[in-house]
Amino acid sequence: MGKQVVLTGITTTGTPHLGNYVGAIRPAVEASKRSDVRSFYFMADYHSLVKNADPDLIRQSSLEQAATWLALGLDTETATFYRQSDIPEIPELTWILNSVTAKGLMNRAHAYKAAAAANEESDSGDPDKGITMALFSYPVLMAADILMFRANKVPVGKDQKQHVEMARDIAQRFNHHYGEILTIPEAVIGGNTAVLSGLDGRKMSKSYNNTIPLFVPAKRLRKLIMKIKTNSLEPGEPKQTEDCALFEIYQAFAGETEVEVMRQRFADGIGWGDLKQELFEYVDAHLTDAREEYDRLMDTPDHIESVLLRGAATAREVATPLLAEIREAVGIRRLG
Ligand code: TRP
Fold it and tell me: Is the CB of 47 within 6 Å of ligand 1?
């Protein structure tokens, strides 16, 4: 048996923030160094079209995402790093998979259901308002991303688990009809990866507009950390570490011993102002080198482009022959 294939995609919407870093990017960059698995990381730019109609933003976000992953040390020798839209086999497979995907399965997708339910509640009278075919069939494209590379394990956030299960369903149905060609993938849900709270205390998320971007100039980083919501306890009053955004961020960066020391300082009544200044210095020091690299990469998009194209060429070494096999199986064949 060959190596296990681990694959994950990153949608190119928005600017990477601290929450993305500790929850997804950092563990993935670590995993990219593993030589006992074959890993694929890609930017899902076709997926980003679903939520974003601004062409410049799509390009900007792709550039920022790629620069971020590379600046943080993604190992592009060991892992294959590419852009979805550089692999024409993916949309081709998407269409083929459409023909074995039950509409009823897609009806159950959370994102689609939420959009449909919102329309039902509003009194526009149009149940399909704002719902594109791309939103509806998003899981089919995602299945193609996964199945195109015979992925065994797909590390994703909880919100994406259903999509991976749909990819399983689709693959099983395909195999049932055309023979055992596709590999059945499995979702791996990041159980112990940290989830950070944002500026307002809710989960840090682009949709809440409460994020701290990962690579902002130090001055801006300080300003944002100072803005994190705290309660009104005075210095000297004991403080809880639970549900404290400042503590969570510190914990995501500091070592175990440091965290224990900090826990004690909370109990002893550390002042919020002092803590914020310290947290800023800590996070800033942790990110300085990567930020310099990020700025350098952002100034050399040609270099990033060439890294991605190299990744795409490697990825297509898998995709091209598998798609040929799939086309043959479904009857898209030469006539003579
Ligand atoms: N939909 C995923 C997200 O929003 C990104 C993604 C696209 C993906 N294709 C994928 C993740 C394939 C894992 C595998 O986060």
Answer: yes
d(CA 46, CA 217): 30
* Residue type for position 95: W
pLDDT in tens, the chain (336 residues): 689 999 999 988 888 999 999 988 998 999 899 999 999 999 999 999 998 788 999 999 999 999 999 999 999 999 999 999 999 999 999 999 999 999 999 999 999 999 999 999 988 888 899 999 999 999 999 999 999 999 999 999 888 999 999 999 999 999 999 999 999 999 998 765 667 899 998 989 888 999 999 999 999 999 999 999 999 999 999 999 998 999 999 999 999 999 999 999 999 999 999 999 999 999 999 999 999 999 999 999 999 999 999 999 999 999 999 999 999 999 999 999
**Side by side, which strands form the sheet with 80-83?**
80-83, 37-44, 4-11, 153-156, 186-189
CATH architecture observed for domain 215-296: Orthogonal Bundle (1.10)
- List the chain domain ranges: 4-101+137-195+301-330, 215-296
Q: Which residue from 11, 50, 112, 189 has its CB within 8 A of the most atoms of ligand 1, so it is best to mutate?
A: 11
This prediction's pTM: 0.92
Tell me the CA distances in angstroms from 226 to 199, 273, 278, one per residue in order.
9, 8, 11
Fold (CATH) for 4-101+137-195+301-330: Rossmann fold (3.40.50)
- Ligand 1 neighbourhood includes 9 CB (under 6 angstroms): yes
